[in-house]
Every structure is written in structure tokens, then in C-alpha cells.
Amino acid sequence: MNNTELTIKAKIKYVQDTLFVISGKWKLSIMIAVSQGNHRFRDIQRNVPSISTRVLSKELKELELNKLLSRKVDEWQPKLVEYAVTPYCKSLAPVVESMIEWGRNHRKKIAEK
Amino acid sequence: MNNTELTIKAKIKYVQDTLFVISGKWKLSIMIAVSQGNHRFRDIQRNVPSISTRVLSKELKELELNKLLSRKVDEWQPKLVEYAVTPYCKSLAPVVESMIEWGRNHRKKIAEK
DNA sequence: CTGTATCCATGATGATACTG
DNA sequence: CAGTATCATCATGGATACAG
Predict the structure, then answer these.
(1) Secondary structure letter of residue B82 according to DSSP
(2) pLDDT greater than 70 at residue B2
(3) Which of A6, A75, A111, B107 lies in the 20 to 30 Å Cα band around B99?
């Protein structure tokens, strides 16, 4: 599938959607922390240095809304919540890979006089 | 070239770099407006609805810094400035295309119950 | 433990007047 | 025409206390 038939406005809208989902200071770091086995709120906070509870809570909600993370609750006492990356999260790989590639080259480009 | 040998921290850094260059409310719209033949400050402003001169000025500077736009001045009176997309700007195509593709699919995904 | 509520600092954006 | 300066507003993030 390619996107040649889309209007420019539609393209911009889709790109902004994608930007919105992955941008911000923390989202990628959180996804990586979770994918590496940190499933609890505190574990994630420990592994994403200097994030506050308020912000972490908000980011987790957005990631869950976008179906990139799942949230499972056992209503025992004390409450037990488990976060995990969803299979859908993997669909971001082409986007992220192309951004890594471009950003990596861009450093050199900007360093040139 | 692939990026499998990079550390996670490096990957995040590169992705954040890329995000920084293309994110924000206006950058993509401005690049498109310029690429479609709007080379003058006023033309760009007319074609990117509701952007203020202050913000347009700032965004143009950042795009120029990142070598995505060129700026050429003829010091006549009245002053004549021409903006144009650089060849380097085209290197963003894979990133933008993958984001269009993902964002397009994501709309459907989120709409699902 | 897993968050929410509150308050505050900072930065981004907007409106508009003005300069060379 | 191509911006800059100034002031107001708003969104975002951080620190911390505390609730269930």
C-alpha cells in the first residue's frame, strides 16, 4: 500500500496523529522500560529516571488509550497492577526505525560546516 | 544499514532528535507550503492559515538551522527574501511516509471497540 | 503500592504594534 | 516586505502531599 492518493491535508493529519502518539519526553522510554520487563508502576518509575508520578500516570493512560500498553488490575489488597506492551506496539517499529536512521544521520549533517 | 548495534539510549536520543526537528504544530505545513511554490514570507503566511508572524519567523529559522529550508536574501529595497526546500529535505520522505502509513491505520484501530 | 490533587515554574503560542 | 518587540494566555511538566 502506498499513500500517493491522499490529499496533503490528510497526510498532515495522519502524521500529526502519529507524532502525537509517540512524542513527548517520556513515551518511548516508558515503552522500552515496560518491554524490558518492568511491569509495575514503581518499577517503571525507577527505570525512567526523574519522571514524577503525576506525569508517569498521565503517560501510561495515554499509551493505554492508544493500545500500545495494556493494564491489568487484580483488586486485592494491596492493589496489583501490571502493565505490558501490546502486540500492536510492534507495529510502530518501522516508524521508530526510520526515525533512528534519520536522526543518526542528521547529527552528522548538522555538525558539518 | 541497520541500527541493531545501537544502545537503547542512543536509539532514544536519535528518535528524540528526529521528533524535535519535525514536531510542533507548524513545521510540516510550512515545508509543504514552501515546496508547493510559496517562497516568500507573506506567501507562506497566507498558505499556513492562522500562523502569526512571530511563530512563522521562529519556525523558519529552525527549519533553516536544520538545513531543511534555504534562505536567500537580495539586499535591495524593498528587501527580498526567498525560502526554498533543500535537497536534504527529501531525506525525510521515508520517515514521513512511515508516519502517514501508521497514522492512517491507527485511526481505524482506535475506532474499534 | 498505585495512583490523584494541588500548587507552581517554565515554555510555547497568540495578538498586535512597530521598525528598517 | 520581512520580520522584531512586547505583552497576554495557555499547555506542559515538576514537586510534593496524601488518599484508597
Answers:
(1) E
(2) no
(3) A111
Amino acid identity at B61: K
Can you give the pLDDT at residue A2? 67
Q: How much is the pLDDT for A76? A: 78
As a whole number of angstroms, the distance between CA A45 and CA B100 comes to 32
Identify the closest residue of chain B to A35 by CA–CA distance.
B8
Pairing of strands B69-74, B80-85: antiparallel
Q: Is the dihedral of CA A47, A52, A58, A62 positive or negative?
A: negative
- Chain B partners of A15 at a C-beta cutoff of 8 Å? 28, 96, 99-100, 103
Give me the helix-helix angle, A8-22 and B27-35, nearest 10°: 150
Interface test with chain A among B15, B16, B36, B67, by most A beta carbons within 10 Å:
B15
Report the pLDDT value the prediction gives residue A6, as an integer from 0 to 100.
92
Q: Which three cell numbers stand for residue A43?
A: 518499577
CA distance B16 to B6: 15
Instruction: List residues bridging with A71 in a β-sheet.
Output: A83
Helices A93-111 & B8-22 angle (0-180, nearest 10): 80
Using a 7 Å cut-off to protein CB atoms, list the covered nucleotides of chain D: 1-6, 12-17, 20
pLDDT score of B104 more than 90: yes
pTM: predicted TM-score of the whole model, two decimal places? 0.92
